[in-house]
Amino acid sequence: MSHLRRPLDLGVVIDRVRVVVRPREAAAAPAAPPRPAPAQADDHRIVVRELRIETEAALDAFDARRLGDRVARALGERLAEVQERRLAGLLSGRSRGGPVRIGALRVRLRGDAAERPSPRAVAEALASAVERRVAT
What we know:
It is a single chain. By secondary structure, the protein is of the alpha/beta class. The protein has helices at 61-92, 111-115, 119-135; strands at residues 12-14, 17-21, 46-55, 100-109. Helix 1 links the parallel strand 3 and strand 4 (100-109). Helix 1 (61-92) runs parallel beside helix 3 (119-135). The longest helix is centred in the middle third of the chain and has 32 residues, at 61-92. The protein starts with 11 loop residues before the first strand and ends with a helix.
């Protein structure tokens, strides 16, 4: 009997991106994520259920969407780098791996960061938080 091995899935998934312009009050905690199905042995993805960007800047719908897209793209690229390092640990046996499921990643942009946001800087801060979580 032959066992076909599937390739390792080290993808990055961001299910939803939400940009909140001028939030009026503290954000409600996101609803608890649905109970995930048991992970497959080859599943080592990073799955972010919601990326939430709160900004004090007065953005119209087009600019808010563009900001969300740019931050999500930069975050995906940065998390792909994290996944490359995870792969090295998996293949060497230093890491047991498994999927990383994150209910919500949230960032608040205020002052100059809100008026002239750098998607790369925002993504770097968020990815550093994810990387710390992966390391624990």
